What does this fold into?
Amino acid sequence: MKLIDNSGGFWTNLIVRRKNADLAISQNLLPNSQMMRVVANEAISSIKGSTKHKIIAKLTNGELTLQSSTNGEYSYGIKKRISPDGTPYERLSNTTLRMRKWKAEHGEIPSARGADYILRETSKHIYNGLKVLSVKIGRKNAYAEIGWTGEDETIAKIQDGGDTITEHWSGQEVVLPPRPFRGFQQEFIDNFFNILNQVYK
It folds into this structure.
């Protein structure tokens, strides 16, 4: 997933609506690496369904400063078991629940992982594996990429889109229903534009 501005993206659209683009560029009002990293980390928090932040952005004499404070939690996301478009995840199958019970009885996972603990059993891959991969800033564009790498990416792709896998514990093939978590929920997009409104007003 990428947060990109290449003349027609979020940043430029906002500048065009509120301020002359040439003037904004000449005054160095395009986002810096600090701002892009803050936005990227907020996007990660949104995908996880975790803490939502109120971010105060101030531009003083060409210098951008950012302050962040906790402002509730995102309504959708992995923790909430809801896709970015607001669709609840399909509940776990009886087979998966039996597997969890077996693993819990053998000390492989905590016993509290019930039917609502979806996409968290592989939390080190999906939940904790989501990172800011790169941030690049140019004179006329800004770029931040978030996502997974290596084994984390493989597991995330399977879980996000659904797939047929062979269970390690039973040797049986099972179909994983898609439980999408890639993408930006509207609440994050609104928060994102609120940050920009403070700078480009």
About this structure: Residues 2-199 form one domain. The longest helix spans residues 33-48.
